[in-house]
Amino acid sequence: MGLGLGDPPADYGSIMAVGLFVALMCICIIVGHLLEENRWMNESTTALLLGLGAGTVILFASSGKNSRLMVFSEDLFFIYLLPPIIFNAGFQVKKKQFFRNFMTITLFAVVGTLISFSIISHGAMGLVSRLNIGALELGDYIALGAIFSATDSVCTLQVLSQDETPFLYSLVFGEGVVNDATSVVLFNAIQNFDLGNFSSLKFLQFIGKFPLSIWPQYLSWEVSSGLLSAYVIKKLYFGRHSTDREVALVMLMAYLSYMLAELLDLSGILTVFFCGIVMSHYTWHNVTESSRVTTKHAFATLSFISETFLFLYVGMDALDIEKWKIVSETYSPMKSIALSSIILALVLVARAAFVFPLSYLSNLTKKTPGEKISVRQQVIIWWAGLMRGAVSIALAYNKFAKSGHTQLPSNAIMITSTIIIVLFSTIVFGLLTKPLIRLLIPARHLTREVSALSEPSSPKSFLEQLTVNGPETDVENSVSIRRPTSLRMLLASPTRSVHHYWRKFDNAFMRPMFGGRGFVPFVPGSPTESSLPLLAHGSEN
């Protein structure tokens, strides 16, 4: 039966919970603004601490019966909170810097994740099993490797600056996004792994085949979903009638790419990230000038709200009295501390085990000292990737809980240990990352890195870019790319050489079909015509 106009709301509890959560988000934004210049704090740590404080207040107000406004839900995290964060990161990423380091990022994110997964899994089987915490099976130990191999790419957005340290940002954040996707896919693959006939040989075969089995199908779907949106918007050009429809279609097609990827058992994280990159390269330039401003700020705002919500959410859920009560009644405090310490030590060792060796291998392929990863940068990459976040918590809930609840002591202590590691790594490692960067990379080096490598932090007006850049320059960051004149030059600088041929292919085939800077639709009376009458086709040809 429907409610009348004078009837009260159906659920005061839900309305109160949502209202309090929105108020906390407003407070978090205000506090984050006041601490903007603080060298230690960042918005993620602020939201996490505020969530812990709010959870403590609720815990005392409810006489120790409840500490949170909402139950942690992995569906809420993966379906609603994570997509806008990852998409905006791809949409705003400095593409030239990202793809210049793409091989190193892939090396860290795929090979490095598999190394980390193997070390943590074997370490858990050898060390955690000695604590006698309960009936943990082989699949649980292996799942721990996938759970704690997932870095916190969301927190990386807060502690690293894309403008001050573009090289480190592209490496650490790029690795984090692909790492999260690899960890989630690896976790799901483990659930279907035949543990009845488990052997070290089969495990190594599984590890070896894993990258080859996921990357081709993922990359094809990621690129095609972004190109489809560009083609539809370019051909139909909704902006001539309604910019609202245009903006809505861009946002919905971005979200649709994520949901379809999940339905097809592909990585939604990777899909929405690369969809953001493709849409910023093609789709964004096919809409009207007002729609570009709107979409840019809309994606950034949705991402910011989701990040704030997420860290508040994790902070409040950390004090869930149900799990902590089960653990305190079954285990001693020392056993909980020992379990968390062992897992944290494995995370530290596992990350060091691949960052430094893989950095050495990556440096072997670099010809100039400026392209190589220095020892100081390797330390920062190792440190910044130690943070664990909501992905780890979501996977732990998926493995050790049902609908956010568990009654098994062994499962409860695994969830509380995950929460402890997430809180410790986010607060401690997150607070110390900025000072560590200032210590290892002096300000004069940051200034030089910005001037040499930085690009626009977000897509700019194609009109501005075309008036600044000539036809032979790299329009992404105004750096001229020399044409490779010999096979030796192609082998000596493959990144720049590949970029030269990609630009020619892009201008000749991709942009005329899918749009982009210089190939926007020409419609009489449109903002394009009034802004730049002479722009009928690309000036980059």
Question: Ranges with pLDDT <50 over ≥5 residues?
Answer: 1-6, 447-482, 524-541
Coarse shape: globular
Measured between the Cα atoms of the first and last residue, the distance is 64 Å
Q: Report on the biggest sheet.
A: 2 strands, antiparallel
Report the count of strand segments. Answer: 2
Query: Architecture of the domain at 71-311 and 319-447, CATH level 2?
Result: Up-down Bundle
Structural class: mainly alpha
Mean pLDDT: 76
Q: Write down the CATH class of the domain at 71-311 and 319-447.
A: Mainly Alpha
- DSSP strand content: under 5%
CATH topology assignment of the domain at 71-311 and 319-447: Na+/H+ antiporter like fold
Number of helices: 22
Helix content: over 70%
Give the strand order, joined by hyphens, for the main sheet. Answer: 1-2
Order of helical and strand elements: HHHHHHHHHHHHHHHHHHHEEHHH
| Rg calc | 24 Å
Mind explaining what this structure looks like?
By secondary structure, this protein is mainly α. The chain has a domain at 71-311 and 319-447: Na+/H+ antiporter like fold, CATH 1.20.1530.20. The protein contains 22 helices and two strands. Strands 1-2 form a two-stranded antiparallel sheet. A hairpin with a 4-residue loop joins strand 1 and strand 2 (479-480). Helix 5 (102-127) runs antiparallel to helix 14 (333-364) and helix 13 (321-330) crosses helix 17. The radius of gyration is 24 Å and the shape is globular. Residues 25-437 form the Cation/H+ exchanger transmembrane domain. It is found in: Membrane. It comes from Hordeum vulgare (Barley).
